[in-house]
């Protein structure tokens, strides 16, 4: 995950318990990820993957332990990470550019014209030039997700948390978005954590996969992906990748059956 001295993200002895539960869903978890890396987190539904994200972005406060981004504790900070949930959450009454510019609006300090200019540039960067004045309902599912990613990028954060952002898309659009996201990562050099239930998606996107093998989450098993970057979908046919896919599926099945 990380061999440097300053990590993009570090959990140190972190635990969390939901008020309605009688156990810690995350229990004394420690892990680190390096700046500029891309990791997918896989695990069965309800195992606590999204809880890790919610603690990282400050929506939940850990019961104990320390979370650091860029070597600094996250408590009390703002704007240190970008978060993209499964649904695009574009406001239907605002044109696309105003949705994308929302992080700049919240941060303040820029005029409406300046926010529009930045949003249109971000839209062009994700292949949506000319879409700024459209309304969200005029975009396809893949285009809406690209707009949501552009909005996430405008947070200015080096750490991006993507929580199953492609799971609601049709199969072919999802494949296209995976390839597009890899291109965006290589272009912008952000640190990306990406939650998915899809083992093949995790293998295609990740430098290494972080596997939740049990609940409560005591550890994230770091499984390197044996495919060079840049890559295309042909890498998934490599015998080492096929073997790793079966091994990861077996690990997840054991958790379901436990």
Could you please describe the fold and organization of this structure?
This protein has a six-stranded mixed β-sheet, sandwiched between helices. It is built from eight helices and ten strands. The chain has helices spanning 49-56, 96-100, 102-107, 112-125, 141-153, 171-188, 199-205, 239-257; strands at residues 9-16, 26-33, 38-42, 64-69, 72-73, 81-84, 159-163, 191-196, 208-212, 220-224. 35% of the residues lie in helices and 21% in strands. With 258 residues, it is of the alpha/beta class. It is globular. The longest helix is centred in the C-terminal third of the chain and has 19 residues, at 239-257. It has two domains: 1-80 and 161-258, P-loop containing nucleotide triphosphate hydrolases (Rossmann fold, 3-Layer(aba) Sandwich), CATH 3.40.50; 88-156, no CATH class.
């Amino acid at each position: 995950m990380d061999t440097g001295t300053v990590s993009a993200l570090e959990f140190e002895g972190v635990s969390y318990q939901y008020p309605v539960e009688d156990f810690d869903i995350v229990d004394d978890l420690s892990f680190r990820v390096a700046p500029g890396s891309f990791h997918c987190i896989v695990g069965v539904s309800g195992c606590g993957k999204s809880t890790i994200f919610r603690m990282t972005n400050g929506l939940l406060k850990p019961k104990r332990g320390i979370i650091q981004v860029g070597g600094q504790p996250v408590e009390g900070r703002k704007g240190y990470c970008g978060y993209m949930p499964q649904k695009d959450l574009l406001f239907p009454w605002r044109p696309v550019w105003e949705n994308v510019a929302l992080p700049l609006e919240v941060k303040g300090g820029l005029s409406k014209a300046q926010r529009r200019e930045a949003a249109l540039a971000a839209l062009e960067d994700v292949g949506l030039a000319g879409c700024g004045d459209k309304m969200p309902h005029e975009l396809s599912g893949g285009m809406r997700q690209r707009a949501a990613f552009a909005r996430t990028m405008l947070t200015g954060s080096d750490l991006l948390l993507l929580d199953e952002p492609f799971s609601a898309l049709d199969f072919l659009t999802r494949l296209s978005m995976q390839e597009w996201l890899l291109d965006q990562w290589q272009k912008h050099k952000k640190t990306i954590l990406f939650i998915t239930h899809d083992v093949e998606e995790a293998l295609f996107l990740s430098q290494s996969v972080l596997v939740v093998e049990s609940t409560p989450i005591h550890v994230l098993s770091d499984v390197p992906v044996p495919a060079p970057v840049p890559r295309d979908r042909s890498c998934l046919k490599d015998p080492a990748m096929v073997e790793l896919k079966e091994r990861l599926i077996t690990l997840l099945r054991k958790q379901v059956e436990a």
